[in-house]
Write a structure and sequence with these properties.
CATH topology of the largest domain: TIM Barrel
Number of helices: 14
Bound molecules: zinc ion
Radius of gyration: 21 Å
CATH architecture of the largest domain: Alpha-Beta Barrel
Largest sheet: 8 strands, mixed
CATH superfamily of the largest domain: Metal-dependent hydrolases
Distance between the termini: 17 Å
Number of domains: 2
Shape: globular
Mean pLDDT: 94
Structural class: alpha/beta
Helix content: 25-40%
């Protein structure tokens, strides 16, 4: 028996059969499919069961066949707004020791592992502290610890005292200061740049409406990031601030608590991305569990109705919406995870289920510049997928029945033991 570096059996090609599959791009799931995964962890072929079995069987190497017992397969989820080191004001902050890098690394690694088990095979990190995210990204790539494939911004950038300054933000002031802060993230290996241009829910001395960056500061960030081929996403709430920052070249908007039809139309026209994180203004249960202070609870839940309208304006205008939870992706919430609840809310706000699924797979990959690598089940893509009991393209709530997760061709969660019964052919 050949063992690989993780002490498990050396991988062989495998065919997952007896399943329906959504490939991440289409309008629906296709029945009686099989998915051939190569030993290197990539997808070789997806299609009609017998055709795929025949093709895989015609190759000289052994092939393991896994019976998914009629399950529904979709690409592994891509969560576009994650903080693995999240510590909201209140009990979470009290319980975390920000001065101890080892404690932070362990917290983030634990959160990464739980996110992966919840079906998130790729995550975009939009604000972490102390550059631990880059170490973790390397460790996950090396197979040292389990976790989603990470695309990370490093620190979020904010003005002195601005949103996130007391958590994941790196403070800067003036155009020179922001140029330097941007370059520091690029030096560390940032895949994108995150900048906080207005107030938010978790800053005690600000309001959602507070503008926080001047035009020259934001232009400095955008110019440097774009020169280096990185996109810029902005934590932004009020419509007038959003209108101004997309004009200055920001590629995406996080939260957008107060979009108007006019600004949503302009975002659609420019192709600006939007990550609504709609759950953050309606997750009372989560806030109560973590004992956030009363001012934050009031502000967050108070923003809820207007935030919901924003999402509906974006849907109506045809804005490119992608899925991000902001809450820990696996956090238990209303009988499921924050990620699944976020997707249910997107559907409840008016997105067709196929669109919600694309927002959490192929469309998210597009923003990451990772189309064809993650977010789709197509030849050459990573063998990242989830297995459900029902069709998520009919009803997004089918994601509540998730019972297996495969990343890079490896089953990292297998509640039903499908992989323990695999047969060699
Ligand atoms: Zn956030």
């Amino acid at each position: 028996m050949v063992m690989d570096r993780r002490g498990q059996h050396a991988p062989t090609d495998q065919v997952l059969m007896n399943c329906s599959a959504f490939d991440g791009t289409g309008e629906g799931s296709v029945g009686d499919q099989a998915i051939w995964l190569r030993s290197d962890g990539t997808v070789a072929q997806v299609g009609d069961r017998q055709a795929v079995l025949d093709a895989a069987g015609a190759t000289p190497q052994p092939v393991n066949v896994v019976d998914l017992a009629g399950g529904y397969v979709a690409p592994g989820l891509v969560n576009m707004h994650v903080h693995l080191g999240l510590a909201l004001p209140g009990a979470m902050t009290a319980a975390s020791d920000r001065t101890d890098p080892a404690a932070r690394a362990l917290q983030m690694a634990g959160s990464a592992r739980r996110a992966l088990h919840a079906g998130i095979t790729t995550a975009r990190l939009v604000g972490e502290t102390g550059y631990t995210d880059f170490t973790l990204r390397r460790a996950i790539r090396a197979g040292t610890v389990p976790g989603p494939r990470l695309f990370t911004a490093g620190h979020a950038l904010c003005c002195t005292g601005g949103h996130g300054h007391d958590s994941d933000g790196l403070e800067a002031d003036g155009a020179d200061g922001f140029r330097r802060a941007t370059r520091e993230q690029l030096r560390a290996g940032a895949d994108l740049i995150k900048v906080c241009v207005s107030g938010g829910l978790a800053g005690e001395h600000e309001a959602i409406e507070t503008p926080q960056l001047t035009d020259d500061e934001l232009s400095a960030v955008v110019t440097v990031a774009h020169d280096w081929g990185r996109s810029v996403t902005a934590h932004a709430g009020p419509a007038d601030v959003i209108e101004r920052v997309i004009e200055l070249g920001v590629d995406g908007i996080e939260h957008g608590y107060q979009l108007t039809p006019e600004v949503a139309t302009e975002m659609a026209r420019r192709g600006t991305w939007y990550v609504p994180t709609i759950t953050v203004s309606r997750c009372r249960e989560f806030f109560e569990e973590h004992q956030v202070p009363a001012w934050m609870m009031e502000r967050a839940l108070g923003a809820g109705p207007r935030h919901w309208e924003s999402l509906q304006h974006a849907i109506a205008a045809g804005v490119r919406i992608v899925m991000g939870s902001d809450m820990p992706p696996d956090a238990p919430f209303e009988g499921t995870t924050a990620t699944v609840r976020e997707m249910e809310y997107m559907a409840e706000a008016g997105m067709p289920p196929s669109d919600v699924l694309r927002a959490a797979t192929s469309r998210a990959a597009e923003w990451l510049g990772a189309s064809g690598q993650v977010g789709t089940l197509e030849p050459g893509a990573a063998g990242d997928l989830i297995v459900l009991d029902a069709d998520p393209v009919v009803d997004v709530s089918a994601l509540r029945t998730l019972h297996a997760v495969v990343q890079g061709g490896r089953a990292v969660r297998d509640d039903r033991g499908h992989w323990t019964r695999e047969e060699s052919r």
